[in-house]
Amino acid sequence: MDMELKGKTVKESRTVKASLILPSDTNHHGTIFGGTIMSYVDEVSAIAAMRHSRKPVVTASIDSVDFIVPAKLGFSVCVDAFVTSTGRTSIEVFVKIISENLQTGERQLTATSFVTFVALDEDGKPTPVPPIIPETEEEIYLYQTAPQRIKMRRERRNATQQFYDSLDITKDI
Ligand SMILES: CC(C)(COP(=O)(O)OP(=O)(O)OC[C@H]1O[C@@H](n2cnc3c(N)ncnc32)[C@H](O)[C@@H]1OP(=O)(O)O)[C@@H](O)C(=O)NCCC(=O)NCCS
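Above: query sequence and coenzyme A SMILES. Below: predicted holo structure tokens.
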């Protein structure tokens, strides 16, 4: 039987990273590559999940990412990640990406996503994580709406599995 782990607040693991958008981060439109943002999303949310669990974690899934506005060369991009919900061994992290025109101070929401991590023990097996304690209005809203997102992910996963089962997906690799 699992030992009851002590709950932790969201602010104990919240992780923020700001970066300057350099020429090497941009495409031929002078805006940041989507893949660069995805990499920040994975990295910053993984730190939040490891701060929460104090265990190694693997990324189990990243929800769809909608890029709302482009972030331009010379802007900063700030990635803010915090734990919104926990299961037995999984941790859901919400990620906001905010771009800032450093000359005018104008900030815009560039993208959001949810990333799910699974904490692993020394044998690489899923291991229990502490429950999360939401405190602010935003944290409570995201906590209360998590079961619906988890249900949608499970349904998507089952549909994907059925798709794999109907094809020999690795045959031609
Ligand atoms: C994630 C992984 C550890 C889950 O292993 P598993 O054998 O399916 O484990 P379980 O069925 O016991 O599920 C463990 C938890 O993960 C959750 N989970 C599993 N797959 C998931 C997915 N695709 N999305 C969200 N949650 C998922 C389960 O709901 C369960 O949560 P809970 O304990 O909080 O209820 C395994 O699929 C894996 O190692 N995947 C590769 C991870 C990786 O390498 N990531 C880097 C990118 S390739």
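The chain has a mean pLDDT of 95.
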